[in-house]
Amino acid sequence: xGEKTGPSxxxxxxxxxxxxxxxxxxxxALGYFRVGECTSARVDYKAGGSPVTxxxxxxxxxxxxxxxxxxxxxxxxxEETEDDLRRLSCASVVIVDPIxxxxxFLAGDPRxxxxxxxxxxxxxxxxxxxxxxxxxxxxxxRDCGAALNGASIEVSHRQALADARIAGPKPMVESIARxxxxxxxxxxxxxxxxxxxxxxxxxxxxxALASEKSHDWDIAAVDLILEEAGGRLVEAASSALRYNKAxxxxxxxxxxxxxxxxxxxxxxxxxIGASLA
Length: 277
Fold this sequence. Notes:
By secondary structure, the protein is α+β, with helices and mostly antiparallel strands.
């Protein structure tokens, strides 16, 4: 079915298309994945030293063909595809990270995910984070709520920063804890940024942080999932994130319930400084 134009795209229909595509993509990736062992996929390295495997490329190619057919006329932005700035003139854009957490995938750690989103007017209207090795599919459509494997999810109801379950770069977490004069329950490193933030959406984590290395493809899908679960994903300025701009990179990111985001941000600004604002 072709894409409708502009804001009239049906968000629930788009979500269901993304779920189906992400699950099929997950099957492709699992063909190269070995739990607790190195991947069977060929591994290359990008100019900056980041790994990319033949699994990333196979998933990317599949999703481009599949979602291009589902959303005819939409732009395309993926970590593993050369950027085509013609996407900036498109009413909608598909944003993809074929394997978010490639280093985990390489090492046999199951905490990696296929992340796919449909963005209209700079904001996601449908998003899916599918963790194939964990058999977990987080999904959301604008104004339709968020779900894990089809069951509704919502963020934690915790209101206090003290002893909150948090995941993110340890030095950043420790700096924020000192600034807020609290102790956090720091969780083990979660290699996939999308999966890390999805755990906030499900209430498994109270807070999550990400360094300033993230791009649209890392977060567009989970941004909507977190929002529809009652949370927020923001930079230090606290405004809603915008996608499908010429610059795809984002600053330090804070994920939390709507009730905890303000004190979390306040502590973060104190700890990390005015350069974030």
